[in-house]
Amino acid sequence: xxxxxxxxxxxxxxxxxxxxxxxxxxxxxxxxxxxxxxxxxxxxxxxxxxxxxxxxxxxxxxxxxxxxxxxxxxxxxxxxxxxxxxxxxxxxxxxxxxxxxxxxxxxxxxxxxxxxxxxxxxxxxxxxxxxxxxxxxxxxxxxxxxxxxxxxxxxxxxxxxxxxxxxxxxxxxxxxxxxxxxxxxxxxxxxxxxxxxxxxxxxxxxxxxxxxxxxxxxxxxxxxxxxxxxxxxxxxxxxxxxxxxxxxxxxxxxxxxxxxxxxxxxxxxxxxxxxxxxxxxxxxxxxxxxxxxxxxxxxxxxxxxxxx
Length: 308
Ligand SMILES: CC(C)(CO)C(=O)C(=O)O
Prior knowledge:
Shape: globular
Structural class: alpha/beta
Bound molecules: ketopantoate
């Protein structure tokens, strides 16, 4: 497959690198010293056990300019959601008649922003579970054993392109699922990440530190119940034990689990607040469900959302 990755940071870089290693023709869209380092030294991915180097050459290329790439079979959208206004229109030269755009961003409505610009029939919503960070120019760190993508057609249909992407991801060693119930999948991750990104950013403490504390645990469970209520009132069919399952999932892997928004606020970078707690507040207003905890998180973090 010809693949382009819009946003070759830690998550896009990891998936792009794996797809190149398994024989796809991958172009990373990157900028500045990150781009230069990838070109000079290859993309380097440090896992818990080894350093993988994927040199630019046969299967991997990197550029700042999407118009150099031309139409691809698969474009991954992995920029932070607050970059969408610039990044999504910039993808247009890479989207042709047969291109599929797989949105792996946080949030339940990010893929719609892409669909509005790139075409309703082009964009597949998806959710990524991966613990990754950028250590330096051209160098990524992927931690822990969880690397998973769940995606689907927005209308729940079973399509040939979905099967082809599933095969490419699986051959790249990524645990992938092509799901008929993609809204449920998106909201399941959303309930987890909006809550944990919100509370860890608010407290400036990691999940491992706040999860065992009863006072935070009550807030976390209440925040998840709030999001569950908004989802159900919006017609999303979540698992009846969604909150208990999500708490158990977090507690099962606490040491390795960090919310990227927490890392962002600690480093003074912009926040995905609008796509996370802001989106809960807006969806709550639409569905007529009160969201006092997310209102508080949203209000408290708003002054930091543009970075500091
Ligand atoms: C799944 C997880 C926790 C890591 O990619 C995430 O989406 C985030 O931190 O924003």
